[in-house]
Amino acid sequence: MSSDHFETRAIHVGQEPDEMTGAVNVPIYATSTYAQDAPGEHRGYEYSRTDNPTRHALEVALASLEGVDPEANGGTISAGSGMAATALIGYMLKPGDHIVLPNDAYGGTFRFFARVLSEHGVEWTAADMTASDGLAEALQSNTKLVWIETPTNPMLRIVDLGARIEEAHAAGVKVCVDNTFATPFLTRPIDHGADLVLHSMTKYLGGHSDVVGGAIVTGDAELHERLKFLQNAVGPVLGPFDAYLTLRGMKTLALRMERHSRNAMAIAQFLEGHEKVSQVIYPGLDSHPQHELAARQMADFGGMVSFRMKDGPDSAFKMTRRTELFFLAESLGGVESLIEVPAAMTHMSVEGTELEVPSDLVRLSVGIEHVDDLIADLEQALA
Ligand SMILES: *Cc1c(COP(=O)(O)O)cnc(C)c1O
Fold first, then answer.
1. pLDDT at residue 72, as a whole number
2. 106 an active-site residue?
3. In this predicted model, what pLDDT tens digit does every residue of 10-64 receive, in sequence order?
4. Which pLDDT band holds residue 1 (cuts at 50, 70, 90)?
5. Per-residue model confidence (pLDDT) at position 2
6. Quick one: CA dihedral 29, 30, 31, 35, positive or negative?
7. Catalytically annotated residue among 97, 104, 160, 178
8. Are residues 246 and 259 in the same domain?
């Protein structure tokens, strides 16, 4: 089943009714192995580390959403978490290779490259990917990979994908875009030339805060082959139950992203007029320094809003403890709204580095509850 429309593909691609029973949902294939007709003669599946039909359905669907036709070129590799997927990419690098990271990378990504892979001889540089010369200055003769996030976390800066990818490719360097925040509903990095797209499916793709998972999508058959080999050799796979939950979540991605975006815009506007707030960061606001780029590159502006408190970190701590609908928690991208103080929670590991975030910063993952209730909750917490 193929369609030009994202909404239709999210529900149909890779998800034909079960041949034997007509079941309209992809079954959870809770099996580790598959009976063979003769030695070495199997029906496409041998062992579930290598492949599993539930996982396969999710991988085909996600590839399609990112604009990859798995019949033609490349595909998806889904792993047990976003970090497991990142680690698989790490296995493609060798001692002496160099990677360019964004200077406000997701904390776990930074930790993996700066504190784990660096011990295996992989060098890294953090660059400001939003500056026109940021990447150019960081590229070296041994650079093998450029890592991009847009919008970034938690400062929600927008990176010009077309420009940065062209620069990297001109230097013969591959590019991985972490598309966790935007999701393919808002931005499709492969359309801009990205070689690899990384997802923490834990966030918007799963969308219900009930599963941890990760994926890499690529439109490059060679990279896909290599990553498939590495996944089977190293072993970080997504289980069939988690694959099922993620696939179920993905069916409503379009609906959810529309509502996340609409709610977030209303909340950003509310916060921008609030006397206790010194700055609101949301790509949909005219006040966002890269609003025009965001409008060009994204179908909508997403569900993440960050803001700074006028009275400093203490007031950020106080207000985040007073919200009732917004749960004080790490993570993002679920139907329920979350609030956090990055400097004290998600971004503790980057304290004292060039990735440090302001201590009075509050980050919201705006859910799909009624926006009036969400604004009322913030209003009472700020009072
Ligand atoms: C959460 C997250 C990750 C890591 O994914 P896990 O599923 O938690 O391992 C990577 N990148 C971004 C942008 C994230 O938000």
1. 80
2. yes
3. 999 999 999 999 999 999 999 999 999 999 999 999 999 999 999 999 999 999 9
4. low
5. 74
6. negative
7. 178
8. no
- Are residue 236 and residue 329 in the same domain, yes or no? no
Residues near ligand 1 (Cβ within 6 A): 81-83, 106, 108-109, 149, 153, 178, 180-181, 200, 202-203, 212, 214
Out of 221, 250, 279, a domain closes at 250
Same domain for 266 and 361? yes
Domain ends where: 250, 277, 305? 250
178 among known catalytic residues: yes
Whole-number Å distance, alpha carbon 82 to ligand 1 midpoint, is 5
Query: How many domains does the chain contain in total?
Result: 2
Indicate which CATH number applies to the domain containing 369.
Answer: 3.90.1150.10
Q: Looking at residues 149-157, what average pLDDT do you find?
A: 94
The preferred substitution site among 147, 153, 180, 304 for testing ligand 1, maximizing ligand atoms within 8 Å of CB, is 180
3-state secondary structure string across 108-172: HHHHHHHHHHHHHCCEEEEECCCCCCHHHHHCCCCEEEEEEECCCCCCCCCCCHHHHHHHHHHCC
Per-residue pLDDT reduced to its tens digit, 234-283: 999 999 999 999 999 999 999 999 999 999 999 999 999 999 999 999 99
Sign of CA dihedral 36, 38, 39, 44: negative
Domain that holds residue 36: 6-250
In-domain check, residue 1: no
Q: Whose CA is nearest to atom 7 of ligand 1?
A: 82
Q: How far apart are CA 306 and CA 367, in angstroms?
A: 14
Question: Are 89 and 160 contained in the same domain?
Answer: yes
Ligand 1: residue whose CA is nearest its atom 5? 82
Catalytic status, residue 203: yes
Calculate mean pLDDT across residues 123-144. 95
* Shared-domain flag, residues 214 and 286: no
Which residue type does 338 have? Answer: L
